[in-house]
Amino acid sequence: MDIVSLVQKRLSETYELHSRCINPQFVRVLEVIGFQRNYRSGKGAWLVDERGEKVLDFLAGFGVFNIGRNHPVVLQVLREILESDPPSMVQMDAGCIAGLLAEALVSIAPEGLESVFFTNSGAEGVEGALKFARQATGRSRIVYCERAFHGLTLGALSVNGNADFRARNEPLLPDCTPVPFNDLEALEKELKSRDVAAFILEPVQGKGVFTPDDDYFPGARSLCDRYGSCLIADEVQTGLGRTGRMFAVSHWGVSPDIMVVSKALSGGLVPVGAILARRWIHSRVFDSMDRCFAHSSTFGQNDLAMAAGLATLHVLERESLVRRAGEMGDYLLAELRGLAERYELIREVRGMGLMIGIQFGEPRSLALKTGWKLLHSMNEDLFCQMITMPLMEKHNILTQVAGHGLDTIKILPPLVIGRAEADYFLSSLDAVLAEAHRFPGSAWTTAKNLAIRTARSA
After folding, report:
1. CATH H-level superfamily of 16-52+321-457
2. How far is Cα 157 from Cα 68, in angstroms, rounded to an integer?
């Protein structure tokens, strides 16, 4: 089978295939916002579409490609594993490569996380973490944060703070209670009943890129200790260097009881995730030979995923990408805040490392305020497309909104970017913002027409 020739032959059919066999509504969205590109290759921070145009990827597969796309080290490791005829997933055996990756993860994890369970995704990791906490504590209730995103499977959705995702799925799992993010008083009110198995949170909230106060994570750690609840850190997007530390919890010197990682762990080439837990928690789940399969995942320890994980950790260290994420993040944050001083549509720039949110808000000047209110009266979710669409159409930069009704654009570039890519993004955004600050103007006309097309397509 010549898969490369097959793909090349049928690349032009991509959107028809997806419309017919996968998700026609997603295809409609891509067509409306002009993002249908038919990509044929990707390397590092760049994609190449079927027309041969290069696109700067400031989305990185929602944080999957921390080491860039198709890193040669990971590709070489995968080739070597495949050529070795690996004895993958024997099941009634323990694989060597899984042991090596578990050892490597424990060596870089926050103190006390000594046990590893491998999964295929972040959502699956969250599901397992909730089970581990409930079995270890003998309690059933879970506390989570408003605006949280932990995945879309049933258990993960039960601790998801977004009403749009929860809709049509109620009732979800019982005994899951939301609290405001960054509110220790509200958290203590729930934990003091001593019936909470775990408090789960993202160190930086992915939907909107909301960062905590400096005392929030240490305070949450202290409260969980006081009331006997597990602290679960969802590092699915923030982990593996994204925020300028290997794991974001290290910014506050906190070690959780359970930590979930995924997304960037395999370099974006093989699905893989992991639950890291304290030994006492793991031992209460797998507490006898009869319960050695108390939780399992068929493909969790497959040799390709484990090898890709080892290669990814090697690249992160060898290329000092965690340090680079911190340095480039500081540069982008400073420059973006400079743009915010010049453009009144920007309300705030927030983030850590290369996880950055650009928050827009109602402007002060009368003309722009008129356009803002008009557009939001038509569709409250479309303003940011007035920024992301020209970034793609005119400048070949891929970005996207941070969540429903937030008026926030999130940028998640690969950690391999340098000053050249950062400056190109900044100059392009400057040009798009300048156009957006002319009302009436082409940017507002485009946004208005988009709102009309969206309404007609609904």
Report:
1. Aspartate Aminotransferase, domain 1 (3.90.1150.10)
2. 29
